[in-house]
Write the structure tokens for this entry.
Amino acid sequence: MNEVSSASALKRAEELDALNAILPFDRRDQLAILLTDDDVATLKHLAKEGMGANTLRALASDLAYLEAWCVLATGLPLPWPAPEALLLKFVAHHLWDLAKREDDSAHGMPAEVEVGLRGQRLLRSEGPHAPATVRRRLTSWSILTRWRGLTGAFSAPSLKSALRLAVRATGRPRQKKSMSAVTADILAQLLSTCAGDRLVDIRDRAIFLTAFASGGRRRSEIANLRVEDLVEEEPVRSEPDDPASAPLPCLAIRLGRTKTTGPDDDARSLMIGRPVEALKRWLQEARIDSGPVFRRIDQWGNVDRRALTSQSINLILKARCVKAGLDPQKFSAHGLRSGYLTEAANRGVPLPEAMQQSQHRSLTQAAAYYNNPERRRGKAARLIV
């Protein structure tokens, strides 16, 4: 790296310090080399506009990959807007037919591009990319193009057709975020491992019950939950139509900006009964009255001031799976989200009511969790039994 480019990278590294709370610190220097001055300015602008931390982190990572790939594939920096031919080249380099590659070494990503990306630790997997990864990077590319006030060819029929055909050629099945849903029976097994009175048990119990009961919250939403987001509600009756039934504690969670809502949305999710009690016990035992709700606990039982990360939530669930005798490879934190809707379907809760709690915007996506329970109860598969 010459002195000019080295000085420019140093300047970008210093500017990325402003995004330190969002971008991974261990990749700051690598991002500073891969991203251009305009890229850094765009990311800082998006952060100022209030874009969610997880979304911004993904955009930065995808942008760095695109910049590196374009230089290796074309010898030139990433152009804005990208021409249609470059978008098609990106698809051809990342989605290809394994069988055809054996007969034609020129098929798919060129060897020199692959070696260059591996040398920069940007490419680790063997074979064609997962279709979901390619679609996500194209989406990030499109978002960044629009934020620069430009129009790209991302809706071109040729690109849509190439994607469809390439996905079919790769033959890779779509990977689910969590192979198995954490339904009520699985949740009970996880909670059984948190039955102790240690702070870590009280915290993990509150995490699982809060995430599930509040509509299957995403792990990022649980990690970002703050005491200020909790709103005490009037108790409700255990039997809504029976005024003499026992009262249950009720708590509302202000969701703020989520994957499907903006910062100005007043989206809320309700929790009633046992999950509320578990959450309140954690806050009391940990002596938390403001700031992050769920925090790290060190080996001596001290509660940190900092919030758990999204990845920590996932690792906690997997660790509890091991203790419960479950296969941790089959479950992830997303299983709490899919599990909530699956359990709602199993219990005959109307889909619109479940979606109001889970805050799903896509009827198609939410309905997918209802399909199997509905089909099991339905008549279509029972014509001959």
Summary: The radius of gyration is 24 Å.
